[in-house]
């Protein structure tokens, strides 16, 4: 990786710690700002174009529901952004594959999903996504 995406991806990120903070965070996201949506363990290639506003709105609603249903903690702590007020990069870790998402591990897992306002670089898949995650992602994007 090189360039501006790599700098954001490997740079300092801030965690969305509480569920209330996550609700407020989603409200600050402009769905029409040109977000690239990417699931590194599912997609073999990065998206060539930013998603439209309706797709981003749908993604936010569905990922929020998934995180709240599957992350059985009293706190969030699995959504990270380069800027919590006006993000350009958001990493969302899959509750079913957390490992050490804080980066203290020598091999932290890839985020389950990435939202980026910059065209993303390819990331090597760290694992094969579970079939239910592949179906979820394909259903979100309207693929069969």
Give a description of the structure.
With 144 residues, this protein is an alpha+beta fold. The chain has one domain (4-141). It is built from 4 helices and 5 strands; from the N terminus they run H-E-H-E-H-E-E-E-H. A 5-stranded antiparallel sheet has the order 1-3-4-5-2. The radius of gyration is 14 Å and the shape is globular.
Which value, in Å, is the CA radius of gyration?
14 Å
Task: Report the major sheet.
Answer: 5 strands, antiparallel
Uncertain residue segments: 100-104
Spatial order of the strands forming the largest sheet: 1-3-4-5-2
Helix and strand content put the structural class at: alpha+beta
Overall geometric form: globular
Number of helices: 4
């Amino acid at each position: 990786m090189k360039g501006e995406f790599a700098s954001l991806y490997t740079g300092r990120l801030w965690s969305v710690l509480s569920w209330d903070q996550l609700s407020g965070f989603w409200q600050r996201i402009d769905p029409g700002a040109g977000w690239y949506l990417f699931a590194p363990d599912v997609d073999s290639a990065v998206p060539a174009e930013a998603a439209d506003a309706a797709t981003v709105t749908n993604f936010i609603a569905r990922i929020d529901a998934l995180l709240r249903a599957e992350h059985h903690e009293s706190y969030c702590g699995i959504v990270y952004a380069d800027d919590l007020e006006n993000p350009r990069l958001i990493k969302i870790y899959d509750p079913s594959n957390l490992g050490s998402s804080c980066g203290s591990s020598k091999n932290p897992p890839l985020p389950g999903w990435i939202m980026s306002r910059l065209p993303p670089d390819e990331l090597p898949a760290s694992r094969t996504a579970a079939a239910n995650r592949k179906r979820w992602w394909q259903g979100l994007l309207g693929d069969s």
